[in-house]
Amino acid sequence: MKLFLGADHGGYYLKEKLQAYLTKRGFEWEDVGDKELDPNDDFPQFAQMAATKVLGEDDANDPRAILICTGGQGMAMAANRFSGIRAAVIWDKFEAHECRHDNDANVLCLPARVVDPPGEARDNWKEIVDEWLDTPFAGAARYIRRNAELDKF
C-alpha cells in the first residue's frame, strides 16, 4: 500500500506524528506537503496533490491518502472534487471501519482539533488510522454500484 500524506498548518504537527507512526508500522508513504509549518498555507493545494497522486498510482499498490487540517472538512471537500476519490472525515474507529468496508474510502481526512487537540494527551488518531488501513473493502455488488455512481457526477 502506498500512502500520500498532506496537511496544512492546522494538521502539520499531527502529520509529523503520523509519519513516525507509519514508518514504525512499516508503511511506505510520501509527504505531499506542507513540508514546513506555514500559518498562511491553504489546504486545497495539499488535497489536490494527494488526490492526483492517488489517482496516478497503479491500483495494485492500493494507493490511499491521509489528509489533515483543523476540522477535516475542507480537505474532504477539496479531495472529493476529483472523480475516483472517496474522501471521508473520520473522528472515531467505527466510522473508519465503515468508510473502508462499505465505501472503499481511499482518502482519510482527520480533524486535528478532534483527534489530537492541543494540550491533551490523546492519541485516538492511531486507532482510527489502524482501522482505516487494516479494513478491506467488502466488494459487495451494491457498494461497487454506489461507488460507480459517485464517479458519474
Explain what this protein looks like in three dimensions.
The protein is α/β, with parallel strands linked by helices and about 150 residues long. It has a single domain, classed as Ribose 5-phosphate Isomerase B, Chain: A (3-Layer(aba) Sandwich), CATH 3.40.1400. It is built from seven helices and five strands; from the N terminus they run βαβαβαβαβααα. It has helices spanning about 10-25, 45-55, 75-80, 95-100, 110-115, 125-135, 140-150, and strands at about 1-5, 30-35, 65-70, 85-90, 105-110. Helix 2 (about 45-55) packs across helix 3 (about 75-80).
CATH architecture: 3-Layer(aba) Sandwich
Average per-residue pLDDT, rounded, comes to: 95
Low-confidence stretches at least 5 residues in length (pLDDT < 50)? none
**Domain unit count:** 1
Overall body shape: globular
**Biggest β-sheet: strands ordered side by side in the sheet:** 2-1-3-5-4
- Total number of helices: 7
Overview in brief:
The protein is 45% helix and 17% strand. The chain has 153 residues and is α/β, with parallel strands linked by helices.
Provide the fold topology:
Blueprint: E1 2-7, H1 12-25, E2 28-33, H2 43-56, E3 64-69, H3 73-79, E4 87-89, H4 93-101, E5 107-111, H5 112-115, H6 124-134, H7 141-150
Parallel strand pairs: 1-2, 1-3, 3-5, 4-5
Summary tags:
five-stranded parallel sheet; globular; 153 residues; alpha/beta; 45% helix; Ribose 5-phosphate Isomerase B, Chain: A
